[in-house]
Each structure stands twice: as C-alpha cells, then as structure tokens.
Design brief:
By secondary structure, the protein is an alpha/beta fold. 24% of the residues lie in helices and 26% in strands. A 9-stranded mixed β-sheet has the order 8-7-9-10-6-11-12-13-14. A 4-stranded mixed β-sheet has the order 15-16-18-17. A 3-stranded antiparallel β-sheet has the order 2-1-3, with no helix packed on it. A hairpin with a 6-residue loop joins β12 and β13. It is globular and about 70 Å long. The relative contact order is 0.10. It binds thymidine-5'-diphosphate (TYD) and magnesium ion.
Length: 459
C-alpha cells in the first residue's frame, strides 16, 4: 500500500512545506506548523460559473439576483437586502457572542417566507437546539435539525433533501474522513468549505457557515475562508456588555455595512438608534470625555472617547488604548507634545472607546487628542459638543469623508456645537440648530474644544 504523504501546514495562514519549520516564512508566526496528511482527492472544481469561451460584456445576460429577506431589518441591511440565492456566507465571531442565536432567529424569518432550512449543528444536540428555539419563540415547520459532524453524511443529506438554506454550525467541528488532521485544522476547514461551496453553487442552495474566531482574532485558518465565500459577516462586541455589532467585511452583493443588536433574554433584538444607545449613561461635563461621530459603512455612529492622564514617577509612562489602534494613540501623543506644547512624558495615558466597540477610522484623531488634552488640563469639554477630524504629523486638521452626514446625526441628537476640520466648513453651512466651528490645527482645536459653548442669543 502506498505510504500516505504528509506535509506541514501553518495553522495561521495555511502555508505548507515538506519539513517542519519553527517560524512561518509567509506570515511570520512561530510554532504554528502541524503535520497533516496530504489530500489526495483534488478539491473538485466547481464548474457552474466558468464558461469555455470568453464573452463580450454585451453578450452576457444578467439575471436579477433573487434575494430572500430574513425579517430582521438590520441584518437584511448589512447583507445588502437579504440572502442571495445560492450564495455562501460566513458568520464569524468569538465563541458565545450569539452566532447560533442569530441564525436560529434567521430561520424564523426564512420559514415565514416558505424556505426550507436545514440546520446542521456539530456543537449541540437537536434537543438543545429545540430548547433554544422554544426560548426564542421559533416554531416553524420549514426548519429541520441535524446533529452531525461528518461532512460525507452531511453532503448526502443535503443532496437527498435539497433544502433552500443550509446552516453549518460551526465549520470547526466538521470533519472529512479522507483527511487525517483533526477537525478545525486548516486543511479540514478549507476542504470542508470548498466541498460545501461545490454542493451549494451546483444546486443553488444558500449556505451559511458559522466560524469561531480563535483567540488571536482570526477564524481558524484565518483568512483562508474569506476569499472563498461571497459574504463575510463578523459579530463583535464585549461579551459582558449587552450589545453586539454585526459588520459585513466582504460582500459580493452589497456594500460593507454595520448593524447593532442587543442580546436580551429572548434572543437578539435590533437597535435602530445605535447612537443614542452608545451614548446612554455617559458622564457629562467631566474632563477626559469627548463625543465623536464615526462612519461605519454608511451609517453615522456617535460614540464616546475617554482618556485618563495620570502623573507617574516611573521613567517609562504607561500607554494603553482600548478599542482604538495603540500606535495611533502614541502618534497623537507625540503630535500633542510637539505641536501643542503639552508635556505628557511624565503621564500615564489610558484611552478607551466606551462600550467595547472597535473603530479604526482616522476621523477619531481629533476626539482622542482633545480627550487627552482635556484630561491633562483637567478641563471638561462642555456637554453638547461633538468633535471629529483627522490629524496629520504637523498638527494640521484634515477633512474626513461624509461630513454632512456626521453633523446631521449630531444635530438630530440635540448636540449644540460641532468642531470640524475648517476645510469642510462650507459643506455643512446649511445645517440648522448647531454651531459649526472650523479648526485648521491642533492648537485651535484644543482651544475651541475647551471653551464653553456660546449661549444662543435670545430672539
Ligand atoms: P450563542 O448563540 O450560543 O453563541 P455562539 O453560537 O456565537 O457561540 O450565544 C450564547 C450566549 O447568548 C449565551 O452566553 C447566552 C446568551 N443568550 C441570551 O442572553 N439570550 C438568549 O435568548 C439566548 C438564546 C442566548
Ligand atoms: Mg454556537
């Protein structure tokens, strides 16, 4: 009998070699190589989307993608109008964040639209799923449950029943007999997804795959699934806080959007006014707290940035950042020292976006800077102020996208004063009931922010 060939695969990025390596030359991770049996069967190419000869654009007939709404408005918006027939969707997130709950709730909406759903769980027994469904008030005849992890059997069941939707919860528990490595390893996860894609695209079945994010923030074999699937949704949030953020980070059928949900005793509830929700319980008129407006997808979202500067007698001050890029905070502190003359070298600095949200948008710069300056000078930014703008290395305040949307959202929520990059001032001159202050450098920014709001003249 022929000897089974094995190879060594990096469990981080999927890079494979013939011998064991301590460090992956591709992604640079250490001690990530594991021995895996080579897959003999080629992962059968799906031929439904390929054609033998090239066609002129005008010769290609386009057909309207048929979509099914899930009945959960925010999810439909994130998906770009519902699930597309025959699409492959990946729902990622930390264990316990609410992926299974969300998908069970999706089943309710799909069932109401007469779609047959096959829910395959490798983690829970059908009794457990039933109990959860009862708790969520889901009672539809269109939903079938299966507790199974062997992909060979799953393929047979899908072929025999031909449902409209298949939910795989989770891809890390599925295994293929022909592959020797353990479930959850790169080859298992990749091969299982490719086989599911094959069957889904071939039969026009929409497949939704759940993937747990591993501790370093990536779905096991991290990005190896993202390029295969049509849509990638990530579910994130602080498990201790009740709200959850659903983001589409890749979507072949729409733009990248974000929706906010709240985990309640009866499952996930959509939050239609996320800004109000994020700002609830915020302290008013205390130093170190600043409200800013960022844009997620196309949705404006008001959030609070907090900073605490405290004197330290150690040589190396501590710098901490939660929810925002650490290096960006270091950079802004350097700009503050050099361009605004604040002596921050003897101060520990802690910067935090409240509520466990993570934002990478540069428009946050101005708010972070003001929060640091406000805490350092122990001077509050008066309640009712909103600040946004990008900061450059020379201390200049640069314009950011969608200024009008941001200012309108602030005005809608009753904010009185908006400090924005001076380059964008003209854009928003038409917005009523809010004072607009344009600033062009970091000194102007801090002076404007720490000044009290002008009282509106009585008329
Ligand atoms: P779950 O959907 O099982 O997470 P995942 O599939 O992403 O691992 O969510 C589990 C958590 O959600 C659990 O800690 C309990 C909580 N939960 C509620 O608060 N309310 C509910 O109605 C349900 C079903 C779960
Ligand atoms: Mg689950």
């Amino acid at each position: 009998m022929a000897k089974t060939k094995t190879k060594y695969v990096c469990q981080e990025c999927g890079y494979s070699t013939n011998k064991w390596l301590g460090r992956c030359p591709d992604c640079g991770a250490f001690s990530t190589f594991a021995e895996e049996a080579e897959v003999v069967r080629s992962s059968g190419r799906y031929t439904g989307i390929t054609s033998a000869a090239p066609l002129k654009l005008s010769q290609v007939t386009s057909k309207e993608q048929s979509r099914t709404k899930t009945g959960i408005g925010e999810l439909d918006r994130v998906l770009g109008g519902g699930f597309v027939q025959g699409s492959l969707t990946l729902v990622g997130g930390d264990p316990g964040i609410g992926k299974s709950t969300l998908l069970l709730q999706v089943c309710k909406g799909l069932g109401e639209r007469q779609k047959n759903i096959l829910y395959i769980s490798g983690e829970e027994s059908v009794q457990q799923i039933k109990m959860r469904a009862e708790r969520l008030d889901i009672d539809t005849d269109y939903l079938s449950l299966l507790s199974e992890t062997d992909l060979g059997i799953i393929e047979k069941v899908i072929s025999a029943t031909e449902p409209d939707y298949v939910i795989i919860d989770s891809i890390q528990t599925m295994f293929i007999d022909e592959i020797a490595s353990a479930p959850g390893s790169v080859s298992q996860v990749r091969e299982a997804t490719s086989r599911l894609m094959h069957i889904g695209k071939g039969k026009g079945i929409s497949i939704i795959i759940v993937g747990h994010v591993t501790k370093d923030g990536s779905i096991a074999g991290p990005r190896i699934l993202e390029h295969m699937v049509d849509t990638v949704l990530y579910f994130e949030g602080d498990k201790r806080a009740s709200y959850r953020i659903l983001r589409s980070v890749k979507n072949r059928f729409g733009s990248n959007e974000m929706g906010v949900f709240e985990m309640t005793g009866k499952g996930l509830k959509q939050i239609l006014n996320p800004s109000e929700f994020m700002l609830a319980g915020r302290p008013k008129n205390v130093s170190g707290s600043v409200v800013t407006c960022c844009i997620e997808g196309t949705t404006p979202l008001l959030i609070e940035v907090q900073a605490l500067m405290s004197y330290t007698s150690f040589n190396m001050p501590r710098r901490m950042a939660t929810g925002i890029d650490y290096n960006r905070v270091i950079l802004l502190i350097a700009v503050l020292e050099k361009r605004a003359g604040l002596q921050l070298a003897n101060y520990d600095s802690y910067v935090n976006l409240t509520g466990g949200i993570k934002i990478t948008e540069p428009s946050l710069d101005a708010a972070v800077t003001v929060a640091i300056a406000s805490s350092f000078k122990d001077t509050p930014v008066e309640d009712g102020t909103i600040i946004f703008g990008e900061i450059g290395l020379t201390g200049e305040i640069r314009a950011v996208s969608m200024t009008t949307k941001r200012v309108s959202e602030a005005a809608k929520l009753g904010f009185k004063r908006c400090i924005i990059p001076s380059a964008s001032e003209k854009e928003v001159s038409g917005i009523k009931n809010i004072e607009i202050i344009g600033v062009s450098n970091i000194k102007e920014l801090i002076n404007a922010a720490l000044r009290p709001i002008k009282k509106a003249k009585e008329s």
